[in-house]
Amino acid sequence: MSPVRRTGLYLNEGGLALAAPKETFAPIPCDVGGVTEPDMGTVDALARLQLAARRLGCSIRLRHASRELQELLSLAGLSDVLPRRTELVVEAEGQAEEREEARGVKEEGDPGDPTR
């Protein structure tokens, strides 16, 4: 019986490791939601992980990245190198509801603006 080869990110004594078959071309999701206090060490580890993935012919895509981690990646110039998974955006269709103006509220304009 041959050993089962799993694909994904693993933590071993040397740090994070990536196991992916050579045929993998789809980005491998990397859940970073547990990173509560990201620093440049985090950014370095993720950049190295992406480099290892690219050497194997695939890439990683960050999931659940905090605003702080996204800002650090942007500051380091790596927001394109380590893309995050974009969520589907559902746009509301239809017309905006028209509202009546509140009574007793006068809209003020800039004194320098010509009146209509």
Tell me about this structure.
The chain has 116 residues and is α+β, with helices and mostly antiparallel strands. It is 22% helix and 16% strand. It has a domain at 8-75. The chain has helices at 40-55, 67-75, and strands at 8-12, 15-19, 28-31, 60-63. Strands 1-2 form a two-stranded antiparallel ribbon. A two-stranded parallel ribbon has the order 3-4. Strand 3 (28-31), helix 1 (40-55) and strand 4 form a beta-alpha-beta unit. The longest helix is centred in the middle third of the chain and has 16 residues, at 40-55. It is elongated and about 65 Å long. The relative contact order is 0.15. Mean pLDDT is 71; it is low at 87-96.
End-to-end Cα distance, whole Å, is 84 Å
Low-confidence stretches: 87-96
Overall shape: it is: elongated
Largest sheet: 2 strands, antiparallel
Rounded average pLDDT? 71
The strands making up the biggest β-sheet line up spatially as 1-2
- Approximately how much helix is present in the residues? 10-25%
Order of helices and strands: EEEHEH
Secondary structure tally: strands: 4
Provide the structure class: alpha+beta
- Range of strand content: 15-25%
Q: In terms of topology, how is this protein built?
A:
Elements: E1 8-12, E2 15-19, E3 28-31, H1 40-55, E4 60-63, H2 67-75
Parallel strand pairs: 3-4
Antiparallel strand pairs: 1-2
